[in-house]
Amino acid sequence: MKNHPFFKTGYWLVASVLIAMLLKNSIPNFWNAWLIALFFLPAALIVKFGIEKANLFKGIKKWIRFFFIAMLSLYWGYVAIAVAYWYFLELKGDLLDKVLISPVFIWLIMGFFVLLEYILFNKSKPKEQETITIYSDRKKTTINISNLAYIESRAEFTIAVLIDGSEFKNNVRISEWEIRLGDFIRIHRSFLVSPMHSTLNGNEVIVNANWNLPISRTYKQKVLSYFKNSIQL
Prior knowledge:
Elements: H1 5-23, H2 30-54, H3 59-88, H4 103-122, E1 131-136, E2 139-144, E3 148-154, E4 157-162, E5 167-170, H5 174-180, E6 185-188, E7 191-193, E8 198-201, E9 204-207, E10 211-214, H6 217-232
Antiparallel strand pairs: 1-2, 3-4, 3-7, 4-5, 6-7, 8-9, 9-10
Helix pairs in contact: 1-2, 1-4, 2-3, 2-4, 3-4
C-alpha cells in the first residue's frame, strides 16, 4: 500500500517543504524558498532513476554513469539557484548564501532525500534469489533458477533438470529443494516444478512443453488451487 504513487508523490511534496525550510535563511520568504525547492526535485529524480539504471551495469561503465548522474543533478541544482539569483534576489549577489552554490550542499540534499525514500518505500521488498549452488559429479555447480524446469527425486539422489534438457545429479533431498526454491510447486513426492515453465493439463503438469509429469492425489488439490488462482490473476 505504501508503494502507491500517491504516497510517493506526497513524500516528495513534504521533501520540497523541508528543502524550503533549509533555504529560508537565504531566500526572502518561505513561498519563494518553496518554489526554489520544487526546482530541486528534478535533480533528486535524476539521482533516483539514474542510480537504478546505473546499477544494471558493471565495472567502469557503472562508474562513468554515476559521474554523469552527479554532473546532471548538479546542473539542475544550479538551475534552481540561478532562478533564485535572477528572479527572487534580483541579481544581488551579496544576498546569495555561499552555501547554496556548494556542490556538496546540493548533493547532500539530493542524496539524503533519495536515500530516505528508498528506506521508507523499499525496506520491506525482499531480494529475489537468482541462483542456487549444488554439488554435482563432485563439482560445485551454480544454476540460474530461471533456467530450472523441475526437480526429480530418485531414491537416494535428485536430478535438477534445466529447460534445455541438461541434468545435474546431486544429493540434495527434494524436501530441501522445496525449501530453497520457495516459489516452485510440489506436484508429486518425486517432482517439484517451476511455475514459470509449467501449465496444467488434466492430471498432469506440462513443463516447458517437453515433459508431462503426473500429479499425485496428495498434492492434487494444492496444485489445482494454485493454477486456478494464477489464471484469475
